[in-house]
Design goal:
Layout (H helix, E strand, L loop, with lengths): L3 E4 L27 E4 L2 E2 L5 E4 L5 H12 L7 E5 L26 E5 L5 E3 L2 E3 L16 E7 L5 E8 L7 E7 L12 E8 L1 H13 L3 E6 L2 H10 L3 H7 L9 H8 L4
Parallel strand pairs: 1-2, 4-5, 5-6, 6-8, 11-12, 12-13
Antiparallel strand pairs: 3-4, 7-8, 9-10
């Protein structure tokens, strides 16, 4: 039986960073043949070390050094961590991570950041499914790595999850163009660019298809209308804001304590 190592990530941890490795959601899962929860560090045979999330840079490095010193001398670290050089979904650098030069492994494969990225000897495969609008228009899937006997990666293969997960798309629709077709089964947002009069009609057409919208106006009338609507949150909610599918404006108004 091929074992499955499941690493505890930051969302599996309690809020108190001091007790991160004392308990995690993985500890609540029933034992299953071949299932190996990793809530701190595990170094099985095969040249690969596994390490759960910790917010502390010092704790991360101490655990990585301990794992690297294991008699099997693993070459690859699979972890869930914040490593310098990574970027957030919006493309901005993620500060405060571990210096990759201090991680004593030849290769690092890490979770944590949702966007696929690679730098130096660090590989972030990204999430396997679409979750928020920041994932729009990205490829999502599972990476299958093949390793040599000493743990060094020799190949990797991408397997798309588009057939089993709902893709998130953002399509630009400009005034004067036909409405772009959204693939069946996708969660689509149309980015509308045009005059205020056109945007109003296009928004209704897009909403009728089940899509959400965001708007960029090209006329001054829209600017005046936007300033008028920004006078109050209730007015904005009632006339401009587009809630996600399954959420109604009156529900949001109730949560905010304003008249719908």
């Amino acid at each position: 039986m091929v074992p499955t190592y499941a690493l505890a990530g930051n969302h599996d941890m309690p809020g108190d960073s001091q007790s991160e490795w004392a308990v995690s959601a993985l500890g609540c899962l029933p034992a299953a043949p071949g299932f190996v929860p990793v809530e701190s560090v595990s170094v099985p045979p095969g040249g690969i070390a596994y390490m759960a999330y910790t917010h502390s840079v010092d704790k991360f490095l101490a655990a990585a050094r301990e794992a690297a010193a294991h008699p099997s001398r693993p070459r690859t670290l699979v972890c869930h961590g914040e490593i310098d050089g990574a970027k957030y979904d919006n493309g901005h650098p993620a500060p405060g991570g571990v210096d990759p030069a201090l991680i004593p492994f030849d290769f690092v494969i890490s979770g944590h950041y949702h966007t696929r990225q690679a730098f130096g000897n660090v590989d972030y495969p990204g999430t396997a499914r679409w979750d928020t609008q920041s994932d729009a228009n990205q490829e999502k899937g599972i990476w299958v790595y093949e390793h040599s006997d000493d743990g060094a990666p020799v190949s990797k293969k991408f397997v798309s999850t588009a057939g089993v997960c709902v893709p998130i798309l953002e399509l630009e629709w400009r005034e004067g163009q036909a409405m772009p077709a959204a693939p069946a089964g996708s969660r689509t947002t149309y980015s509308l660019v045009g005059s205020s009069a056109w945007v109003g009609g296009a928004k209704k057409e897009a909403s009728a298809s089940g899509a959400t919208t965001r708007s960029t106006f090209t006329d001054s009338a829209a600017g005046r209308e936007g300033r008028r609507k920004s006078a109050g949150l209730g007015d904005y909610l009632a006339s401009t804001f587009e809630p996600v599918a399954g959420v109604e404006r009156r529900e949001i108004a109730g949560w905010l304590g304003i008249a719908p």
